[in-house]
Amino acid sequence: MAVLNEEQEMLRDMARGWVTNENPVAAWRKVRSEKPVEGYSADVWGTMGEMGWAGIVIPEQFGGSDFGWMSAGLVVEELGKTLTASPLVATTIAASAIVLGGSEEQKAKWLPKLATGEVVGTLAVDEGPRFTGTSTAKVEGGKLTGTKAFVHEAHGASLFVVAAADGLYLVEKGDGVSLSDRKLTDQRSHAEVTFTGAAADKLAGGGDTLLDDVLDRARILTAAEMLGMAQQVFDVTLDYLKQRVQFNQVLASFQALQHRMADLFGDLAMMRSAVEGGLEALDSGFGVARAATVAKAEANRVLHTMSREGIQLHGGIGMTDEYDVGFYLKRARVLESAWGSTSFLKNRFATLAGY
Question: 0.90 exceeded by the pTM?
Answer without folding.
Answer: yes
